[in-house]
Amino acid sequence: MIAPMDDIDRIMSVMDAAFPAEFGEAWNRRQVTDALVVGNCRYGLIAPDGSADFGSQTNTAGFFLGRSILDEEELLLFAIAPAHRRQGLGHKLLQRFILEARANGISRIFLEMRRNNPASFLYASHGFQEIGVRPAYYRTPAGTRIDAISQELILSD
Ligand SMILES: CC(C)(COP(=O)(O)OP(=O)(O)OC[C@H]1O[C@@H](n2cnc3c(N)ncnc32)[C@H](O)[C@@H]1OP(=O)(O)O)[C@@H](O)C(=O)NCCC(=O)NCCS
C-alpha cells in the first residue's frame, strides 16, 4: 500500500507524540515508508472527530499499521496522540482495523505488546486473548527488561 506523503506526515506526527521514549517502540519515517512500500502492509488514520475522512482537517488523532501474510495480519503499530486519548478514538480505530481485516479475508489478528501497557484493556475489550509471553523481550534504553505479551483475535465467519 503506497501512502501519500501527507499521510506519512500524519502517521509521524502521531508517532512522535504517542510512544513513550523509554520503551523505544516508535518507528522512524524510513521504517514506516519502507513497510508501506512492501505491499502487504496497510495503514489507517483517524481524525479528532473520529472520521477517516480528513477533508480540510489538519490534525491527526491516531493511526494503525498492519502487515498481513495470507489470512493472518499482525497489528504492528497502533496509537492515539496524547491530546486525543480517553475519548473513545482508540476503540473506534481498533474496530475499524478489525472490520477491514475481516473484509480482507483475514481470519487471525496477532499483536505483541509490552507487559502492563494500558492498551491491553482496549485489546481485551475487542476480544483479544493472550497466547504467549516472551520473557524480557524488550530492553529500554535504561537497560530494564520487559516481557512481550502476544495476543490474538480469531475472526470467525
Ligand atoms: C492505548 C491507546 C491507543 C488508547 O487510546 P484511547 O483513544 O485513549 O482509547 P479509548 O479512549 O478508546 O479507550 C479504550 C480503552 O482502553 C483502556 N485504556 C486506555 N488508556 C488507558 C489507561 N491509561 N489506563 C487504563 N485503561 C486505559 C480503557 O479500557 C478504555 O476503555 P474505556 O474508556 O471504555 O474504559 C493510547 O493510550 C496510546 O496510543 N498509547 C500509546 C501507544 C501504545 O502503547 N499503543 C499500543 C501498542 S501495542
From TrEMBL:
Which residue ranges does UniProt annotate as crossing the membrane?
none
> Which InterPro entries does the protein's record reference?
Acyl_CoA_acyltransferase (IPR016181), GNAT_dom (IPR000182), YpeA/RimI_acetyltransf (IPR050680)
Highest taxon of the lineage: Bacteria
Query: Which GO molecular function, any one, fits this protein according to its record?
Result: acyltransferase activity, transferring groups other than amino-acyl groups
Any Pfam family hit: Acetyltransf_7
Task: Tell me the CDD domains matching this sequence.
Answer: NAT_SF
Instruction: Give every N-acetyltransferase domain span.
Output: 1-147
Which keywords annotate this record? Acyltransferase, Transferase
Protein name per Swiss-Prot or TrEMBL: GCN5-related N-acetyltransferase
| Organism the protein comes from | Novosphingobium aromaticivorans (strain ATCC 700278 / DSM 12444 / CCUG 56034 / CIP 105152 / NBRC 16084 / F199)
